[in-house]
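Write out the 3D structure for:
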Amino acid sequence: MPLVRTSLWKARDLLAAALLLGLPFLIYAPALRGEFASDDYRFIVQNGENLDRLRTPWVFFTEPLTNSDRGDGDIYRPLRTLSFAIDRKIFGAATLGYHLHSVALHGLVALLAYRLLLGTFGRAARRAALLGALLFAVHPLATEAVCWVSSRADLQATALLLLSLLLARRGEARGGSLGGAVLAGAAAGFAKETAVALPLLYLLEHRVRSGRWLKGAGRSFSALAAGCALYLAAYFTVMERGITGQVGFYEGSFSAHLPYGLIGLARAWRLALAPLGQSFLWETNLFQPLCAAEVALASAGLLATLAGVCLAWRRCPGLALGIVWFFVAVLPAANVFLPLRTVLAERFAYAPLLGLALAAAAAAAAPGGAGRRTAWCVLALLPVLAASAALRAHDWSTQERLYEAELKAHPGSYAGHLGLGGVLMRRAEQSPRGEPSRQDLERARALFARAVEIARGDPPRGLEAAYALGHACVLLQDWDGAVAALAPVDAAFAERPDLRQLVRHGADALYDLGLALSRRFDLVEAAAVFERLIAEYGEAPRWLDALGETRRALLQGRAMDDYLRALEIDPDYHDARVHLAEMMFQIPGLEGEARRQAKEVLARDPANEKARRLLEQQRE
């Protein structure tokens, strides 16, 4: 096929563009006011410090710790982090703006896909290009990438990937500068690391368009490779631990995690062809042995697909290459080369879906009756896919509905159990104490206990679930249950100090353990836990106050020093000041100072009932 030179868009192209940009807002309307979910809290809600960094935006590219509130240095996606900070500046905590941003990006990607397909197959195949782009726009496998704000990186990377392909093709046709393609290719990597497959994807698209692999594409291929090299150079310069920073805590050989890669590839392809039983963060534990039959079935499916590609090559090479595109694009996140914590998530298939669009457009553009029949089949399938995507978007309207849908699809999901338990526990904490609150906590405890079982063998996940279980027990005042859940967390930290950097709630787990020990009057052990907590994570007013309370119960004089240090860090930490006043009232000669401390609490916080009751008791 000769190289296609696209001219200015005609009226039909403008109508197609309006359809592709507007349709996603209709499909994803149920999720536009959806709640934040999962990692949205650490990346956005609790990461307000990035607002100040907007004055020096280059910091997002040089400092990976801007990624989240807990200083994660294991992910380097500066464009996503920068976009979150800008959204936070504009929209605050209102989720509508974030979702509108993501849906608009999805529409833009669909439009760029149409532009790419239009140039690939020519204006004579305009309908085929539109069908392919519409298939991408309405496919329910894109739901997670569009509805989950944290998946913004997939949208950005795919948009920039398509832009770089278009710029490379333009430079190829006109023989002009390819600087834009280099910059767009590097930017795609800065959005998400999976964009490193860009040069290979360009070769596939070039082969469909021109009938040749590298002839006539050498300059453009080199430009895109240079863009990826530019991103990788920045990555390895900024990330001190290199690529192992994200996967270094997983042990095992290539052959040990390859079966998970085969399952991930097979499942992604199955969901692309038949998007049934989808899930949010579908995961398999990388430490538990897989069923041999499952691996064999995945391998057989992949071999059958390979055979289909070979058979389709002669009659419709565009169809075959579209399928190859899908697998090349999903390969970086498929556990084939590097073990990841997630074997498969829907968002991993977002950019690969462009391969499905390419295959559908190629089949619909085929001459004769075969092309017409394919076009009618795709057209009939579009409403079904759109309805399925809208239903999936409805699942994303609330966190509870999302995790309920996840557990319905995959009863063994770790993310589903932990996520739903977290929703119930937060709701219980925010509601008045009573039976409904206790029912939520009891259900959350059961979900967390199941999550601990599912995550057995995966230390970071297992300890996160153990913390959640222990915290639920603390809220239920089940002190023995809390100690049983949290003591292994403390032991794991002692055995493997590196886990402190991987477990998000490590400090909270130790605090809850110390609290549970003190409540069941194991005061010496509780003091030791609080001391380790402060030594390992630094001083915090709440921890110092808890240590002071424990030492006061042990009749140790150092308790006053702990209260004073807590107030030195935060003079408005009223619990420490009230406890200091209580201790001073018990020491002869310090009653006046104690009264002054209690009155200062009331001056700073007139509604503080602890200080008010303390003064009333002293008057009596």
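The two ends are 96 Å apart (CA to CA).
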